[in-house]
Design brief:
This protein is mostly helical and about 80 residues long. The protein is built from four helices and no strands. It has a domain of about 50 residues. Helix content is about 55%, strand content about 0%. The longest helix is centred in the middle third of the chain and has 21 residues. The termini are far apart.
Length: about 80
């Protein structure tokens, strides 16, 4: 026979945990924002290509990031 319990344990209030959770949420949001950038996705797609496929496009692997971000950054 199985027994079910809905007992809840209470933990003491920890203000440092609350502050850490706040900054963790901000950090996770910034990471999500950066990873959803279309340029990051384009660079990731190009990095998945083989060296031969990049050569057909006139690129080298070390120039992919420079190519993708060239319109907004001087590298």
């Amino acid at each position: 026979m199985a027994y079910a319990s809905n007992a809840q344990t209470s933990t003491p209030f920890n203000p440092f945990g609350l502050i850490a959770g706040f900054f963790r949420a901000i950090g996770n949001g910034l990471v999500h924002l950066a990873e959803s950038n279309h340029r990051v996705n384009r660079a990731r797609t190009l990095m998945e290509l083989s060296d031969e496929e990049l050569a057909q496009r006139g690129l080298k692997r070390e120039d992919v990031v420079k190519h993708v971000f060239s319109d907004i950054m001087y590298v």
